Design the sequence.
């Protein structure tokens, strides 16, 4: 089943980051939503760290207006570094430099916000005919659960494209792209995707397998995206392009596979889930956790008494 394209190592990642973050206004009026802190790092750094840990050394960030802070964060801050050197603050100096050393960062503007499919399409020249990963910044995957590495492994073995799937309550499936699947014999966590529906109406979902924000894509997707008309919301949906790929011949880079993820995922695109993510991650930190968990127990106890 392996195609010539699939033998090319996956070394590049695309991170769409052009959204306006309207759900977090007014905090995102002048600050990119990707730069909102999750404990003491911006959300986007967790995503880039994940890509780097999976061996992806070349990352293209698809940005828009008012996103200059993203470029600055992954660039050197000489004045700040010199100040920390003079103070002898090696710990903070190390943390400031971490973001610069993660990967080779590149940037391109999306222009008109025409949807995720359009954001991916503007990466075509940079990807240069290679399979590549796409990581959405709203989904943070715990580094103890190496989802992306597993997806790359599947793509290299089976070819085609790979999406990340997670079981959700049927009442919530209308919030996601949804996959119809069948077993393909590659493992209990791997399926062949036979159909995809973007945010299905209640009662019309083919399963409760939701597509979450990790993809490893065959470059054939660019040909399909050029022919994909605007779909739900008047935007070019990546789900629609992947649905078309499920009908293509495997030897030509078609077929879509799904990796079922049962690990820890933090959704930072919703305000309540964003707060829960911060609490969970802070509670597990060695430097913050003990004191924070103690305070949290007291706080929750007092709230229950009220």
Sequence:
């Amino acid at each position: 089943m392996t195609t010539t394209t699939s033998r090319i190592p996956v070394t590049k990642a695309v991170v769409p980051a052009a959204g306006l973050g309207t759900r977090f206004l007014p905090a995102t009026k002048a600050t990119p939503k990707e730069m909102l802190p999750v404990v003491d790092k911006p959300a986007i750094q967790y995503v880039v760290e994940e890509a780097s840990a999976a061996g992806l050394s070349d990352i293209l960030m698809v940005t828009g207006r008012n996103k200059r802070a993203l470029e600055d964060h992954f660039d050197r801050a000489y004045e700040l570094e010199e100040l920390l050197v003079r103070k002898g603050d090696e710990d903070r100096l190390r943390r400031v430099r971490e973001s610069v050393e993660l990967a080779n960062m590149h940037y391109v503007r999306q222009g008109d916000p025409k949807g995720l499919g359009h954001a991916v399409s503007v990466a075509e020249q940079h990807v240069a005919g290679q399979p590549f990963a796409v990581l959405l910044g709203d989904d943070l995957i715990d580094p103890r659960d190496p989802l992306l590495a597993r997806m790359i492994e599947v793509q290299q073995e089976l070819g085609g494209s790979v999406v990340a799937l997670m079981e959700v309550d049927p009442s919530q499936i209308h919030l996601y792209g949804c996959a119809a699947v069948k077993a393909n014999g590659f493992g209990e966590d791997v399926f062949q995707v036979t159909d995809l529906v973007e945010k299905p109406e209640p009662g019309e979902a083919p399963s409760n397998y939701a597509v979450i924000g990790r993809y490893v894509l065959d470059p054939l997707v660019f040909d399909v995206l050029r022919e994909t008309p605007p779909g739900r919301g008047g935007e070019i949906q990546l789900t629609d392009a992947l649905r078309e790929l499920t009908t293509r011949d495997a030897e030509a880079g078609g077929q879509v596979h799904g990796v079922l993820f049962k690990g820890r995922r933090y959704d930072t695109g919703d305000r309540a889930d964003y707060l829960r993510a911060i609490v969970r991650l802070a509670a597990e930190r060695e430097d913050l956790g003990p004191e924070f968990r103690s305070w949290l127990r007291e706080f929750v106890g007092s709230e229950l008494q009220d």
Observations:
- The first strand starts at residue 12 and ends at 16.
- The chain has two domains: 5-269, 270-306.
- Residues 289-305 form the longest helix (17 residues).
